[in-house]
Amino acid sequence: MAKVAVIGVGQSAFVRAYPGSIRELAFEAYKDAMRDAGIKPEQIDASVICSAPEYDKQRTPAGLMAEYLGLNPQPTFYVESVCSSSSSGLRTAYALVASGLHDVVMVLGFQKMSEISSAESQERMGRGADIQWEAPFGTMMPAYYAMYARGHFEKYGTTEEDLGLIRLKSSTYGVINEKAVFRKSLTLEKILEPKYIATPLKMMDCCANADGSSCVIVASEEKAKDLCSKPVWIKGLGMATAPINMAGRDSFSGLKCAQLAAKRAYEMAGISPSDVNVAEVHDCFTIAEMMAYEDLGFARQGEGPQLIRNKETYKEGKIPVNVDGGLLSKGHPIGATGGSQIRTIVLQLRDEAGPMQVPGAKIGLVHNIGGVGIYGNVSIFGVE
């Protein structure tokens, strides 16, 4: 397979209510990525636009973005896998470049969730479940992940305090991430206040909706070496799916789609979990990060709590995870989330992550989940 590299990354600040339009929001990440890559619009052969369309008032946003960003008449594609949309977009861009069809492809993810009310947003999230057999009964994202938390608690003895320690870590790094929504240090006592959203998940166990955009530019080996002094290579890509109906799942203590995606990504990259120096995982809820530790092989099944209790997932630990604050601190603008995770890892591998930098990071991993484990994307990056 041909080599493909990331040559530019960008991200808007993630905010609760962006005052402009979706095209203006997208431009903020695009501008940063284009400046980072040092290229002009005419050098982009194709674009992949990613969002969850149920939150957008604009139909066919790919056409809108291509026009506004000066990318006509190049081809544009629209990719959606809910919360993992821009990681699926990266997979699409990789295929377009590795096949030789295009040399430089831009992946742009965005979401302006403040365009609709919180109640409308929750209703649309519920429709991420089967609209015939589950959504009509009032299923919501916190309740689904609470079910997984209960499963993990019952099977392995995990506690609410274990999940609280994950949120404590998130706040530690959210403070130093200028792109994050929440930049406030928290205490474990505050985190464990019994403000339950869906037992055992409390308010601080849940990420918040946000408005934001992210942009990743990938290129062929020849173009990357010509255009970029610090290319970051895409080493492995894994993707898998699981039944949308919970009745079709055989486990509620881990996400099978993440486990299979990780296995495929590790095989493609030719590495094992112990080779990863820094990771970004999909922590929409604290239990999601806990399961990711185990699904990705950073800990054996049931031993994820030991990682966070021993601070092994802090920057100084053996496998730093979400040292940009994760979704819990950054916020979760659905279509932009995967691209933001990729940006963090690219900056880490280029030694450009500032106060969040993990010293000597050479291999990074992104774990991005769509829905309640419906889609799983794992992407591995390296500097060689």
Automatic annotation (TrEMBL):
Taxonomic placement: Bacteria, Pseudomonadati, Thermodesulfobacteriota, Desulfomonilia, Desulfomonilales
GO biological process: lipid transport
GO molecular function: acetyl-CoA C-acyltransferase activity; lipid binding
Occurrences of domain Thiolase N-terminal (ranges): 21-186
Segments forming domain Thiolase C-terminal: 247-382
Protein origin, superkingdom: Bacteria
Protein name: propanoyl-CoA C-acyltransferase
Keywords: Lipid transport, Lipid-binding, Transferase, Transport
EC code: 2.3.1.176
Keyword Transferase among UniProt keywords: yes
Signal peptide, first to last residue: none
